[in-house]
Here is the input.
Amino acid sequence: MSGSGAAAQVFGVGDVSIVKVVDVIEPMSPKVLYVDKTREDFDPHLDWLQPQFIDENRSMLLSIHSLIVQTGRHTVLIDTCLGNDKESAGFPQWNHRRGTFLEDLARAGCPPESIDYVFCTHMHIDHTGWNTSLVDGRWVPTFPNARYLFNRKEWEGIKDLPGVHEQAVLRQNLLPIVEAEQVQWVDGEWEIDDVVRLLPTPGHTPGHCSVAVSSGAGRAVITGDMMIHPVQIAEPQWQQAADADKALAAATRTAFVQEHCDTDVLVLGTHFNTPTGVHIVSQGDRTRIRLTS
Ligand SMILES: [Zn+2]
Here is the structure.
């Protein structure tokens, strides 16, 4: 499934709107995402995960989308998905894509020139792709008027990795932004309009940051890959294969679930399929979700 084509989902948080624009939705095997989990491990959770988050084949539905926070004064785009025309992207279907993301972004009222800031929760391929677009054979910033917030710790963690995949991310998605002088370096701390601020959630990568949004009585957190699938609200100790520091990531996730359980904080999962926004609630000694529309 590539490009939603459907109307964008919009979340209201106080006076702020958060617009979700999908790049791609993919069914994915638990084995790809988790260290030692299989489809059977989902059986105790199917009653609350299907049909939104697990399909009829018991594949996980992984949504790759951007969340655009409109504070009234600034427009901040969180995570830039896969992008088009990329190479060495890891999964074959992520290479040489021709998705409709930019058209969908414009249709949702957020054309590229309207974006003031871009922040990638971390510097993996599926969070940095639309940083750039291929124009006349060159990678150029997709968002011409944006400052791209680069987390120095995250950059230090990736820039010297020798793998083909990491180097492809650097070459295609990151270095062109540096060369265009559109980078604003941050150290895990940044906020704007008293509405949007970074929330360090290390483990998946060393510098990984979620994003907290607050406006009036409304509060939300955009997870990034601190948690990839809603099942982890019930099973925060499950280890994600892609977590760089698996123990730290599990500790970060467990603390997050405990801290946000039975609160009014809207949890917006960066890879949660529609409806994407959930509240964490307790059911006896278990943690589950309450869906929002
Ligand atoms: Zn991801």
